[in-house]
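One such given next:

>
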Amino acid sequence: MRYVNKVLKIFFWILLLAYPSVSVRILRLFSCEEVGHVQALTRDYTIMCYTQKWSIYAFGAIIAGVLYIMGIPVLFLALLYNAREHHVARNWRSCLRFPEKRKQLLKEAKADAEICGEFWTVDKDGDGDQEIEEEEKAIKTFLRRKNMRFHRTYNRLGFLYYAYNEHHWWYETVELSRKLVLNGCIVLVPQGIVTRVTVGMLLCFLYMVYMQNTAPYTAPTDHNLASLAHVQLFLCMMCAMFLKLGTPWMGISPTWRPIESTFMEVLLISTHACVILYGWITLFYEKFLSKEARLIAARQENAENARKRLMSKMKRVKKKALLSVKSTRALSAFGGVAKLDLGKLLGDDSGVGGLGGLLGDDNDSSGSSSGEDNADDFTWGEDAEESESVKPSVPAPPAAPASEEESDDGSAGVIGGAVGGVAGAGVLGGAFYMYKKKRQASE
């Protein structure tokens, strides 16, 4: 659908841009003027009007006028109308069958009006009752506006109505008619001294008044630019009329005639330049300095800050997860925390075995409790689990009451076990540190 929308958009753009020039060339075939005793084509004196050759050309021009001059505005208006009315009647029939859907659409219509800053009410006549006709009008208006905001419709036909407010979605056809009348139909006006210029001035004035009354543009800069363009066209027609008539509006002295012509030329060029310059200024303002541009920039900045905060949080979580994984891998060498026999790891009551035995005892001269011998007595990980599952469960004999000396020996064993635990933690920390260094070197 994206490819189809792009192709249709380019096609409609070509039709819109080529409309004035093609329409003028079609209508010029009907512009004839009297040369001697015959009527000749204004653009080509070799072609006599109202002859058989001209009639053949005129027949083709009439077909082109119907299909192109009249067809393009009708095509655009039909496309916009169909897009605006898409599934509106079907949704309203669904609302008549399901009152809950009707209530939901009324709530959405009210919320949409509040977001747009518009006054909204269903009770248009003010009698205090919401009639079904009033609800129908409110819901259909909301659905039509929603259709014009649909992204596919906007991508395909948005260039025809995005500059105008939602109540004047059709105004582009008015602009097409203005271009057609001022560029093409004006050539059909009989050529007099100032007849065409006068008609052109009148048309410019009427279109300018209509535009000011309807105010169809969404952005104030667009409205101001359109107003300046209408005024500039009116001034152009007025200067053309003065030049055609040769009116001595500066004075009756012949010395003022060159000054009048120069002034008209400067006025025309300067008004054109001012309108173009204002157009470039409005483009720059709308792009960088307008309220909409500032809101978009602030929204992008907020989104970027939120993304940075999220990435920072994800990095912290990732770092904690990696540390947890690495510590788990380091402890997995001992079969994991859940499977680790802490009694044998920390050592027995005599202070031998466990991590102390694994590290070696400098005070032991016989070497009978070396780390290798004690390691054979210690069962790690899954082996410990298998050995526990193989051994038969024999009930332990009842413990005899401990004497004072045995309790003192037990206290000493607990202290020795705590010391062995600290030493074991140091060994695990060193092992994890070396593992981390080796992992960083390999990465």
Notes: The chain has a mean pLDDT of 76. The longest strand covers residues 32-35. The radius of gyration is 46 Å.
